[in-house]
Input
Amino acid sequence: MHAVQSYAAGNWIGPAADAPQIIGPVSGKPIAIAGGAALDFAGMINYAKSRGGPALREMTFHQRAKMIKALAAYLDTRKEELYTLNSLTGATRRDGWVDIEGGIGTMFAFASKGRREMPDGHVYLDGNLEQLSRNGTFLGQHIAVPLQGVAVQINAFNFPVWGMLEKLAPALLAGVPSIVKPATQTCYLTEACVRMMIESDLLPEGAVQLIIGRTGDLLDRLGAQDIVSFTGSADTAFMLRSNPKLMRNSTRFLAEQDSLNASILGPDATIDTPEFALFIKEATAEITSKAGQKCTAIRRMIVPDAMLTAVGDALAAKLSKITVGNPEADGVRMGALASMAQKADVLDKIRQIGAETTMICGNPDDFDVQGADANNAFLPPMLLSCADPDGATAVHEIEAFGPVATLLPYRDIAHAADLANRGQGSLVASLITHDPQVARDVTLASAAWHGRLYINNRDSMAESTGHGSPLPHMTHGGPGRAGGGEELGGVRGVLHYMQRTAIQGSPDILTAITGQWIPGAHEIKGPTHPFQRTFHEIAIGETLHTDPRTVTLADIEKFAHFTGDTFYAHMDDDAARANPFFPGRVAHGYLLLSFAAGLFVQPDPGPVLANTGLNALSFQKPVSPGDSIRVRLTAARKTQRTDDYGEIAWNVTLYNQDDERVATYELLTMVSYQR
Output
């Protein structure tokens, strides 16, 4: 029998001699012992803050992103070891794919987000520069920096790998060490994953620690720089977040709670449409995947009055064909619940909902189980129907966290949205419709009550990811009952582990803090043309001022006829003067950009490899025939991209003969590390 160990302050610590046994939901026999060991929680916090935190914060966002990518790649090479343990949790291999490879994929996604959307530095810029003075000598900028504490991540039993990695990836990218606390029932799978991460030797000491068993007085010891991230039931979340020390210290508490998620079948989705078949397919998957033990599973299926019987019959036909049993047995589509306690809880919740519903599919007292004893933690997929959803209360308040869903009839779209909202906040609501107006009406009526709206139809179903699949790119959380928090969501998820601070000062001060050149800051004159210098030779603030070039009427006409852009403002003086924006005929904006490039480009071969982008182009003042333009080109930001080259973002500003700004933009160039 496996003895599940904690990992605290760099040491593996086994369970107490009298540690409780974990009973396998499939076999009904003990499979592991876990918990009970006396852990030094103060020492764990100190180890995270004194070792893990400083080491992570010393790294840039991009270095941390590379670390996360390497860690994900390492776990991917050992995922079969995790699959070996997966079936012990009662999950099928397909369920395990969502947990194991979904978690690894989430790490890859955050690594990519870190490299693409965060700076190659230590400070994240949040929003645009704020001009706080007339002449630009006093400016403001919102930044985000890592919290200097520890992230305590408390996870649920249903996703022992993904549930950990979806929190760990953004915390590590932010630069914050984590203490992971999995649910005991499936902690052996989490422990195996953590052991792999430690063995990879890719993480700094103290970056990740693991608690198996109770958290003791851990939460009492947290302060203002710490964060608790929780996944689980609303009752447990309320108990944890009510800790007086957490409230007094304003310790951040991020909750992702189980909720009564809904799915609406649009009125246009009649039985002969692709949308009807899609609704049945998705509903079947959400009832049976992970034996219904998903925080995003559909609990209430809201369908038109006239379609109630058709939907019920179609779903019952699908669900009756689902083979329940040992996940390792051939042909099994749905495994066991996580424990006998979970099975008992689901049966109790069904009894509570039963007063308002009728059972149309599934009998928990009489069903077949393949390769295992039905008296263990197995249940059949069950479908209920509620004839009076307006008068019901239990179906909108009580969640059976298993393979259970309830059909609810609606009269019109407003009624459907109201029924969905009666769950008092969910992680996700879905809508299956091909009617854009239905989608708009439901969104406006119910988006405020749901963290995610998943709208699918024949156009998107081939590539859609499913009602119950949170993606690392999109926020995962919801209002009210769902906990009021957000996880994932790309960089949004990273910012939960960071402090937003408004900094104010001169351009030079802000440049020094952010590592990015701010207009008005000191300019550096390089020894040679910047396009003849390597990535590492170019300094932030290095600036080239060009000679002026006069723009003639002949230039404008030649450009117009060559490109085909004969817009009246460039070709008809009277029409241009009638336009309040122009004093007469003016140069094309793209002509000015072309002239600007001609002014600052050095044509000889050199370290500059290619221009790859142009951002935030803004035209401030028209240029008339006879005006002249000059360019200021300043290295504003540097980002290492590969082992061979990096990206330099140049601030480009065009001025006229009166030193008035004509245009500004950001030019991206790829520059070699070598000559």
The two ends are 61 Å apart (CA to CA).
